[in-house]
Design a protein that fits this description.
Blueprint lengths: L8 E6 L4 E4 L16 E7 L4 H11 L3 H8 L6 E4 L4 E11 L4 E11 L3 E6 L7 H8 L4 H4 L2 H36 L3 H8 L4
């Protein structure tokens, strides 16, 4: 097992009455949650440490192909049913205002009967509101199972697509306005290299 002290791993566990959160958890701390009643959300930021991925996989009985898929961030959106868990791979999109481009990050989501594990390429996400909702004892998410949590995570990702596309569309409109106002070779060249 991986014995790192500062593992970018967090654990949220909840049910209708209780809530716990562990930040910078050790991989070994995941073990009790495998069969614990309630719902556990484990999030790992970074997928480059293959031994760490394998350790999580051993705890939750993940197939070796699942671990390899998680480590390979070039996948298209897909899902696979492994019997006791589902693997869903999708892209989180975010508008990069500095480069005027859209950044894509792979999120791999594994969910079983009582857990959801998310594997993100890099730290930072837009799940803060969902995490806050889980803290509320009478929230819908606290009354539901891991399948509901997985759907909510996917829903947050898809909802973020709209804002990202809207921001990118605003940049395209600004380029169109610039071309109409100043139809020069330089303006045309700036459009042909957009985003850059």
């Amino acid at each position: 097992m991986n014995k790192k002290v500062n593992v970018p791993l967090s654990i949220i566990h909840y049910d209708g009455t209780g809530y716990t959160f562990k930040e910078a958890a050790l991989v070994e701390e995941c073990q009790p949650y495998k069969d614990m009643a309630g719902v556990t959300w484990i999030n790992l930021d970074g997928v480059t440490d293959f031994s760490l991925l394998r350790s999580i996989g051993e705890i939750f009985g993940l197939h070796e192909l699942t671990i390899q898929d998680i480590a390979n961030t070039g996948h298209r959106v897909k899902h696979e049913d492994f019997g006791h868990y589902l693997l869903i791979m999708l892209k989180m999109l975010e508008f990069n205002s500095k480069d005027k481009s859209i950044d894509a990050e792979q999120l791999s989501l594994v969910f079983g009967a009582n857990y959801v594990i998310t594997f993100q390429e890099t730290p930072g996400d837009f799940f803060g509101a969902l995490r806050d909702e889980i803290k509320i004892v009478d929230s819908v998410v606290r009354r539901m199972g891991s399948d509901y949590l997985a759907c909510r995570i996917i829903d947050v990702i898809v909802d973020n697509y709209f804002g990202t596309v809207e921001k990118f569309g605003d940049e395209i409109e600004a380029k169109e306005d610039e071309l109409v106002a100043n139809p020069t070779r330089e303006t045309l060249n700036s459009i042909s290299t957009f985003p850059a």
